[in-house]
Design brief:
Blueprint (H helix, E strand, L loop, with lengths): L1 E5 L3 H13 L3 E6 L2 H11 L3 E4 L8 H11 L4 E6 L4 H9 L4 E4 L4 H12 L4 E2 L1 H11 L17 H11 L5 H8 L3 H15 L4 H10 L7
Parallel strand pairs: 1-2, 1-3, 3-4, 4-5, 5-6
Helix pairs in contact: 2-3, 3-4, 6-10, 7-9, 7-10, 8-9
């Protein structure tokens, strides 16, 4: 995987670069602030950006919002020491594919990076629970997007399964009896129709509309 590191601490970047390279990943560039992260991502086209939250000039959440709007094909995973819930929620709303804390063990870190590379949410179970609880809260009407009835019956089925916690492509394909490529196709259609950036946002959208409530 081609990775761009964005963090304002040079020593941390050095250590992370060595760790990533030891696992066969290519570090294509390093940024020390959010503005530079956007510029380098535009120039280098990485597969994934590891984005710190607290950086000068432009913070990681703002940089993620701008980067995912300009280059939706580039995945952004927040890598931070912050434990603030509001930062987690804002990062996912901004389009981040995941949110990882810097105290993770290496094995879990790389497993979640692999999930992000497959287009799956990169979240530890505890953060995923916080996120789902937040997205389940009543919210004000969202900006104009397609209504749920614009989804096909199969797309609604995929979305309902994601609400139930079945988010991995492999598990979705097994439940639906289709290939993983077909699952990716359906998820992409769901995100495009609802004008959302990632699966976490799609789950939040569905939970607010009780789409996963089959009772």
């Amino acid at each position: 995987m081609r990775i761009l590191i964005a963090d304002d601490h040079a020593l941390f970047r050095d250590g992370l670069r060595s760790l990533l390279q030891s696992q066969g990943h290519e570090v294509v560039g390093e940024a020390s602030n959010g503005r530079q992260a956007i510029e380098l991502a535009t120039k280098l086209h990485p597969d994934l950006v590891l984005m710190d939250v607290s950086m000068p000039e432009l913070d990681g959440v703002a940089a993620t919002r701008e980067l995912t709007a300009k280059h939706p094909e580039v995945k952004v995973v927040i890598l931070t020491a912050s434990e603030a819930d509001d930062t987690l929620f804002e990062a996912i709303k901004a389009g981040a594919q995941g949110y990882l804390q810097k105290n993770l063990e290496a094995d879990e870190f790389f497993a979640l990076l692999d999930a992000a590379s497959r287009g799956e949410p990169a979240l530890t179970p505890s953060l995923a629970r916080k996120l789902l609880q937040e997205f389940a809260k009543p919210a004000a009407p969202e900006p104009a997007g397609e209504e749920p009835d614009a989804l096909t019956s199969r797309e609604r089925e995929v979305l309902e399964l994601m609400v139930e916690g079945v988010t991995a492509n492999r598990k979705l394909s097994k439940r639906l009896g289709v290939s993983e490529n077909t699952v990716k196709f359906h998820v992409r259609n769901i995100l495009d129709k609802l004008r959302l950036h990632n699966r976490a946002q799609a789950v939040g959208y569905a939970m607010r509309r009780k789409m996963g409530d089959r009772g």
